[in-house]
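Saturday, quiet lab. Running sequence design on the structure tokens for the scaffold JK sent over.
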């Protein structure tokens, strides 16, 4: 049985909305990826290569944008349990009910995106991206200098 949570739609950001229940004031958050049918084929598409391919989002990309310095220990502990220790740090979590609940607890502090599995980066890959390139390179040549 898939875990489901009923949330008030005034408190939920669009990336959490999966399906709308019969009540217009409530949204249904499912831990599993969306199972909506693919969009209809455009009239100009003649081969399968031209059809838009649906992307399955399987992970949350969570970035801390606001500091939690003056906030309570429960919020700080929630950020630590998500693996976030400093501002502008990015972590990836699979779509699970536990991760969704933690994100909802600190939703004012973080920015969340749904990303497919191939976009998930490991800690080593993110560290390598931040490192400066070794050596030097000549940017321009000065002429006329004696």
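Result came back. Writing it out in full:
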């Amino acid at each position: 049985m898939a875990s489901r949570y009923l949330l008030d739609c005034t408190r939920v950001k669009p990336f959490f909305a999966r399906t709308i229940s019969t009540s217009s004031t409530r949204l249904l958050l499912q831990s599993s990826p969306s199972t909506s049918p693919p969009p209809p084929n455009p009239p100009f598409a003649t081969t399968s290569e031209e059809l838009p391919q649906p992307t399955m989002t399987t992970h949350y990309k969570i970035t801390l944008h606001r500091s939690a310095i003056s906030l309570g220990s429960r919020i700080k502990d929630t950020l630590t349990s998500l693996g976030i220790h400093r501002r502008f740090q990015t972590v990836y979590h699979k779509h699970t009910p536990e991760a969704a609940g933690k994100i909802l607890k600190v939703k004012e502090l973080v920015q969340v995106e749904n990303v497919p599995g191939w976009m998930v980066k490991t800690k080593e890959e993110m560290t390598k991206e931040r490192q400066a390139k070794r050596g030097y390179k000549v940017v321009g040549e000065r002429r006329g200098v004696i």
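Notes for JK: Helices lie at 73-82, 97-105, 123-130. Residues 19 and 100 are 15 Å apart (CA to CA). Ask whether to fix the surface positions before the next round.
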